[in-house]
Write the structure tokens for this entry.
Amino acid sequence: MDRTQDCGSCNPGSIPGGSTFYANLRPMITLASPLAELKGVGKTIVTRLKKLGLDTVQDLIFYFPFRYDRFQNAKNISDLQEGQEAQIIGQIDLINNRRSARRKMNLTEAIIQDDSGIIKVVWFNQPFIAKNLKVGDFVSLAGRVSEKLGGLCLVSPVYEKLQNYEEQRNQKLHNTQGIIPNYHLVEGLSSKQLRYLIRQVIGLSGSLKDSLPDQVAVEQKLMPLAQAIKNIHFPENELDLENARRRLGFEELFVWQLRAQMIKRQLQGRQALKIEFNEKATREFVNSLPFTLTSDQKRSAWEILLDLDKPTPMSHLLQGDVGSGKTVVAALAILNTKLANQGKTILMAPTEILAGQHFETFKKLFAAHDFKISLLTASRKEANWADGKIKAAEIAEKSELIIGTHALISDKLTLAPVALAIVDEQQRFGVKQRKKLADLNGKHQAAPHFLSLSATPIPRSLALALYGDLDLSLINQLPAGRKTVLTKIVTEKNRQAAYDFAAKEILVGRQMFVVCPLISESDKLGVKSAKEETERLKDIFPDFRISLLHGKMKSAEKEKTMRDFLEKKSQILVSTSVIEVGIDIKNANLMIVEGAERFGLSTLHQFRGRVGRGNDQAYCFLFTSSENDSPSSETAKRLESLVKYHNGRELAEADLKFRGAGETYGHLQSGFPELKIATLFDYAQIKAAQNSAEKLITTDPELKNWPRLKIKIGQFEEEVHLE
Ligand code: ADP
Ligand code: MG
């Protein structure tokens, strides 16, 4: 066996190899080594790895698979059946490339033979395969068996060339046999390459420092870090994989919990500005609204107002599905804060667009009050008491409510006294930011009350366990009369019919959103895909104005595009998924999601929440690519959940069911706290992590034995220690 492949800590240079000795001499590879020092990693690969955030050997071994293929031992070709995931070993009878005229792509077609029969194989847009594999070569192929044009066929299987048929037939193959890891990729990089690279260095995981305190590992019966890392990449069996996930997931939740506990302790000793409940004004405000509050809104508001009326800083999470009306509940807290006259409110939104929209909303909501409201973002500085431009310093000084993005709490501005800080739709509001907020008025002054608004769809018991530092209010119902968004899965052949339908709606004055997926991971922001889609749609809808919104546009441009759409100057708004925000445009009742199969259900639910906010029936068309046309396919079944369910929590659960615990859609998955391995639905594990964290904090409140518990899970790094 080639030892350099199996044991990354072996330095190939130290193995005497006769005349090749000096040629083999390589620098000693350690965890800190740059990836360029690995065998087979040239400049191009380094650049591609960098795009994944991978610079060093350590980064690489913490780059976990997001999915696994499971291949049984090789089957006879004659035994294959449609729908199976199977591996075969055979010889190439024929292989060549051709261009498909209709779909303009490159097809590599091959005929493979074994003792029992022959089967056709096709690959799309991978012309190099015909260079790698020649007639007469023995190969191992693994993939899905489908029925095409009357015969069985392997579509885009993973392949592995066998040097010597007889010898390799009985040896473990790394890409086509057993449980095979798959990684999130960028263009020009394959999971096969990553497997090869990780295999070279996996042995080095033995020199990693295990960050979990021993007592915790023993109590929870968790395997050592090194073993978990090895098994998460190359598990021998399902049990190993499960235990590896449990180990790594536990650590993740443990850090999370530790963080929550630290924040809680930090805030316990602090004072807050007491916001007295103003019953009369609250009642008048509620009565002035054009709608009646739902009972959940009332209850949540009441819980929050009670918390504000205490001398200790409130930490409150208001959770409610998209469109459940969290803003107006926040407004009640803001109103009481203003009337208590102790300090201002700051409201932070995830994007400038959303901040702009909140500014408009709150100006309207509080139009009858003498209320100083301002917007402070990188591109806009406005206040309702001033015409035109205004200086940030004046905003900071005079506002009673400042709306902005997170940049608000950068060090540049003096905002004190802040009585209430609200964060909208932000999953990751880290310890450092929380700490910064707490000290906004000065380290020894009263800390602001904290209110977080979130649409994360998780059950109450879980939310309580997960956000140990926050008190929780839930809005479980949508306002009365809200129609569910009619959702349809639209395959390629029905695309035109959907466009025709949309055109009719637009002609009577409605508007439409079109969300485009990221075509390739190298196009991180999806700008290319959205631009191309816009051009395409201009041909399809020549009579309508189509505008484009993407993350690379300047803020002012984005604002203008949004405003034009709001003022119905354009009828169709094409955007990248990156722009997924809580915008509220009541007249838009149509949504198309391109490449819907590429998104997680929760994300699609968030998209869908952008329509159906007015009184009209709203529609959401989920376009899928033609390869997934079959209604029995896993994709179709998964998307069916959106047709069936209209509730974020049900969808989150369906999402998990379909992807299998621990597998994620990477950055396409949103609405969840950023956990790489652990699942939010494993209540027992969350509880266990919480208990362990509590115990550790009680025995070692300053974390003296773990002064800088710094834990790295994949690209996720969070320092628990608070200064
Ligand atoms: P989210 O919880 O997603 O932030 P919003 O606060 O933006 O939802 O509310 C969505 C829409 O519902 C807004 O247009 C808001 O004015 C409206 N709304 C809020 N509460 C009610 C209610 N009780 N009845 C009817 N409409 C409501
Ligand atoms: Mg909102």
Notes: Residues 238-268 form the longest helix (31 residues). The longest strand covers residues 85-100. The domain at 69-182 is CATH 2.40.50.140 (OB fold (Dihydrolipoamide Acetyltransferase, E2P)).
